[in-house]
Design goal:
Distance between the termini: 84 Å
Low-confidence stretches: 1-22
Shape: rod-shaped
Order of helices and strands: HEEEEEEE
Radius of gyration: 23 Å
Strand order of the largest sheet: 1-2-7-6
Helix content: under 10%
Length: about 130
């Protein structure tokens, strides 16, 4: 990784793990055809680094990875070593009506797409009158 003088070491480290300056995963939410589509930016993560869970109407997306790098010289001695750990998580309330089988996810080129059905609209109940006898 090359460090530019106008950027800080920490800024580069956070950007490497797919974080923006607030530490949140960038997410776009679209409503289409009776469902919500969440597009979550997770560059640098692999599909196996990502876990999605659903509990009590809350959908949680968590990505975590550990990485270590070593550079050795011609003699085989370590001249540079780095270790990094990164974890991000976001939770979205999707409603109690959503079941695990309703949620679909795919991961392609650093973008996690999660599709969740929107709440089913209840028919407006017609006002009924009670006869008085």
């Amino acid at each position: 990784m090359r460090y530019a003088p106008e950027r800080s070491l920490f800024e580069d480290m956070f950007n490497e793990f797919g974080l923006n300056s607030t530490g949140l995963m960038r997410t776009d939410v679209h409503k289409k055809d009776g469902s919500y589509s969440l597009e979550v930016e997770l560059p640098g993560y692999h599909k196996d680094d990502i876990r999605i869970s659903l509990y009590n109407g809350e959908l949680t997306i968590r990505a975590q990875r550990n990485e270590s790098k070593e550079e050795k010289d011609a003699k085989g001695e370590v001249v540079h070593s780095e270790r990094s750990y990164g974890a991000v998580s976001r939770t979205f309330y999707v409603g109690d009506h959503v079941k695990e089988s309703d949620v679909h996810a795919s991961y392609n080129n650093g973008i996690l797409t999660v599709t969740v059905p929107s709440a089913e609209k209840k028919e407006a109940e017609e006002k009924k009158y009670i006869d008085i006898q």
